[in-house]
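Researcher: I'd like a candidate sequence for this fold, 451 residues long. If you have to choose between options at a position, lean toward the conservative one.
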């Protein structure tokens, strides 16, 4: 039976969207097609995709190779359980491939359906590890303000964006937050210490305040994405690693956004010469073509998981863990990233992006720009001298978003930070146009609104 394409009336009648309120999308767009770094809506208008979907369409839209990988696997074995006693070739091959490209100490992987499930898996694994080591009181997790780790209940409790909390309280107990290492906004109370070390030292203070014998892990994005693309100073993470080692606290790297080439390296902490105990990933592993996430654990953690008595086994599971179709698409995606040298391309175009963003600093209203590889942000402020943001009633994020959409760019504005993370296949000319549109949109958004 043939069906006509449904419209926005059907959408409003039957769909609950993420972050939903019906007033938030009176002029919603229906996206229908994508190719490379361009997406098209139902009216036929094309836009540059400034955020690679939702930080995830790394190899670009319209990759038939990924569709073929899904088709071939679905036609052979679409799904099977990966519970103990069962496995499949794509899951085995993907875990083996990840061991070749991930941090040297991480060679064992567990697959989920996405990033929030990966966060839950990391937190549970950290608790399991310390219980198995005879330290059952080590259950607390420290995170950062402006962090995003997902919105399932424990993940939301780690997420450091208060807008997500109020209507779902109470949060899971045992979670606390320290300041983000924001080179623009962090207030360094110790003038004899670099900003990066001072920000990291907040972790040690928090561990001592909570009691080191109660803290299981510190979870951190190498670059904080949804919190406004916060790129830490180079000495921040080496100090974090030292503090975690000193106090027996596991370091969890949330590589959901930074993983698979976004920053110009396979994984974000490679920039700082350290390795995490647990890394979590999603988004870019399949370029968003099919849902997949997971965690990788260090060899030391793997030995503890495998060394407990059967009655204390790692009783953690998802129906879709190791889904063969998802893993087959991920394998093909990693092949594209490698064969087309897209990680190197992200580093090269990242230099172009940094240069173009720097030129925006003279614009009225631009407080700060930052980037690493092909992820960056332009922070818009009401007062450059005080760094004050526009009041909420000014609706600056919506005004910026609308001004960019009018000029053919779709991306997100988080806390008045225009986020930039295009597909790694974006052309040099398209990348220049992204920044040009931002340069045009900011003064347009800052114009007084007619009443």
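Model: Candidate sequence:
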């Amino acid at each position: 039976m043939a069906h006509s394409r449904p419209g926005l009336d059907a959408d409003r009648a039957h769909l609950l969207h993420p972050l939903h309120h019906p007033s938030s999308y009176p002029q919603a767009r229906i996206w229908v097609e994508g190719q490379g770094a361009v997406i098209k809506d139902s009216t036929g208008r094309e836009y540059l995709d400034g955020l690679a979907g939702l930080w995830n369409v790394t190899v670009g839209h319209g990759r038939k190779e990924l569709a073929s990988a899904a088709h071939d696997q679905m036609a052979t074995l679409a799904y099977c359980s990966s519970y103990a006693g069962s496995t499949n070739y794509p899951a085995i091959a993907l875990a083996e491939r990840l061991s070749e490209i991930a941090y040297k100490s991480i060679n064992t992987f567990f697959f989920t359906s996405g990033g929030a499930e990966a966060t839950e898996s990391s937190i549970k694994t950290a608790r399991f590890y310390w219980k198995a080591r005879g330290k059952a009181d080590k259950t607390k997790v420290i995170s950062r303000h402006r962090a995003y780790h997902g919105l399932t209940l424990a993940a939301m409790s780690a997420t450091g964006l208060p807008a997500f909390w109020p209507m779902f309280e109470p949060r899971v107990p045992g979670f606390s937050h320290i300041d983000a290492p924001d080179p623009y906004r962090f207030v360094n109370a110790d003038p004899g210490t670099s900003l990066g070390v001072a920000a990291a030292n907040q972790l040690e203070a928090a561990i001592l305040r909570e009691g080191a014998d109660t803290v299981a892990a510190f979870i951190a994005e190498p670059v904080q994405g949804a919190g406004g693309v916060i790129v830490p100073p180079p000495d921040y993470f080496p100090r974090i690693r030292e503090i975690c080692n000193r106090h027996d606290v596991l370091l969890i790297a949330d590589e959901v956004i930074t993983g698979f080439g976004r920053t110009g390296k396979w994984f974000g902490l490679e920039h700082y010469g350290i390795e995490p105990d647990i890394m979590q990933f999603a988004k870019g592993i399949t370029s968003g073509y099919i849902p997949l996430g997971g965690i990788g654990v260090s060899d030391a953690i793997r030995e503890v998981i495998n060394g407990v008595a059967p009655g204390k086994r790692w009783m953690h599971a998802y129906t879709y863990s190791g889904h063969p179709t998802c893993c087959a698409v991920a394998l093909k995606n990693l092949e594209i990233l490698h064969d087309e040298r897209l990680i190197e391309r992200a580093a090269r175009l990242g230099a172009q992006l940094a240069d173009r963003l720097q030129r925006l600093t003279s614009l009225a209203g631009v407080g700060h720009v930052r980037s690493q590889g092909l992820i960056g942000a332009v922070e818009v402020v009401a007062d450059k001298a005080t760094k004050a943001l526009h009041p909420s009633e000014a609706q600056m994020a919506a005004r910026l978003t609308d001004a960019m959409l009018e000029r053919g760019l779709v991306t997100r504005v988080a806390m008045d930070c225009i986020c930039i993370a295009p597909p790694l296949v974006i052309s040099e000319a398209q990348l220049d146009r992204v920044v040009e549109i931002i340069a045009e949109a900011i003064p347009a958004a800052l114009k007084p609104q007619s009443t």
